Amino acid sequence: MPDPGAPSEEARPAWDSTALRSDPHADPDKARRVQEMFGAIARRYDLNNRLHSLGRDQAWRRRAVRLAQVGPDDDVLDVACGTGDLSEAFARGGARSVIGVDFTPEMLEVANVKVNHRRWPRDVTRPTYVQGDAMDLQFPDESQDVVSIAFGIRNVTDPAKAVSEFHRVLRPGGRVVILEFCEPGLAPMRLFNGFYCKRIMPLTASLIARDRSGAYQYLPRSIETFSKPEDLAALTAAAGFGEIQQTRMTMGICAITVGHKAAGP
Using CA atoms, how far apart are residues 236 and 153, in angstroms rounded to an integer? Predict the structure, then answer.
């Protein structure tokens, strides 16, 4: 018989102090927790991104598009697209087509509202959005020219499996672009960033989003316990990518990893 004094499943946050005490990436229930938290913060997600990155998040995405070297004949698959900011950046960057894939329906709802309410130049193809799993992409082999994922690879249950999927769906000569947070190398910046991300941002972001899911407690913990950029580069290489380059931005708080699929024999 259930305890009448115990919190209901609906009242229980996706991430609480107990779940975050250890490595959240090893949590067997990570997928459900991640989907639930993003569903809870979807409507204020963009606002929090702009405020807490001091507007830099859009510049990081534009840099990722430039490093992808997108051309007018390129088809782009933007995985863990969230509310569609990177998908839109690729579309405006001149890609032939852009498909955004995300695990969370609420995030896709926001993405679709945005894309349908913006004014688009006639020569720009709007992104389209579908629900999907980064580890099991429902796209044919060698069907894309660029696969991107921004601030999402650490939220995947098995990043290595996801990156292998990226390799599978890319055409020969295709590029993978991974944009992710990391801990700054310089000690003063690392200390400041740690204080900001662990003390200030969780409070203010949770207030803005009216969030009780624990999403903004998970964020700094997920960065702290995730792979370093050099480890992510090694994971990308293990999936079969070559010519791997990494670019750190804003004093090292995030990095872009670009890898190339071999052009063929």
Answer: 11
In terms of C-beta distances under 8 Å and separation of at least 24 residues, what long-range contacts does 117-122 make, across chains too?
118/88, 120/91
What range defines the domain where residue 79 resides? Answer: 54-181+225-260
User: With 0-12 CB in 10 A as exposed, 13-18 as middle and 19+ as buried, what is 32?
Assistant: exposed
What is the Cα–Cα distance from 251 to 31, expressed in whole angstroms? 31
Res. 27 pLDDT band, cuts 50 70 90: very high
CATH number at residue 165: 3.40.50.150
Residue appearing with tokens 């996706």: 14
Instruction: Give alpha helix (H) positions in the chain.
Output: 17-21, 30-41, 45-52, 56-68, 85-92, 105-117, 159-169, 187-195, 201-209, 215-224, 229-238
Q: pTM for this one?
A: 0.93
Residue of 59, 87, 60 lying closest to 75 (CA atoms) = 87
Q: How many CB atoms lie within 10 A of CB 245?
A: 11
Give the gyration radius of the chain's Cα atoms.
18
Tokens (6 digits) for 265 = 């024999």
Q: How many domains does the chain have?
A: 1
d(CA 81, CA 61): 12
- Position 219 in a domain: no
Among 177, 180, 185, 181, residue whose Cα is nearest residue 244: 177
Length of the chain: 265
- Determine contact, residues 110/83, Cβ cutoff 8 Å: yes
pLDDT single digits (tens) 175-189: 999 999 998 888 888
| Residue 130 per-residue DSSP state | E
